[in-house]
Hints:
By secondary structure, the protein is of the alpha+beta class. The protein has one domain: 2-Layer Sandwich (TATA-Binding Protein), CATH 3.30.310.50. 28% of the residues lie in helices and 34% in strands. It is built from two helices and six strands; from the N terminus they run βαββββαβ. The protein has helices at residues 13-24, 69-83, and strands at 2-9, 29-32, 36-40, 47-52, 56-63, 94-95. The longest helix has 15 residues, at 69-83. The mean pLDDT is 95.
Amino acid sequence: MKSSTAYVQTANASRYLQQLCKHWSHRFTVDFTPEEGSIDFGDGEGTVELAASRTQLRVQVSIEDSGDLPGLERVVAEHLARFGFREELIFDWQPG
């Protein structure tokens, strides 16, 4: 399993977490509260774990060793950036 984590500075972390989870809840297995969320894309396609605080959103993506981790990072970041279009969300992905 490969994974990476980004800590995104934003005062809207809970809103973005909930928006992303609601957005994908019709297609994937999703569980969330205002503070934490998880998205399972199924069939080894990866997972996303989210945690919101008052000042940041922690985004952790994981995928099977044979999967495309940079691709998953890109898809998640693009979706969150659309929700946060009024501010610049910076994703500095770190391995592990």
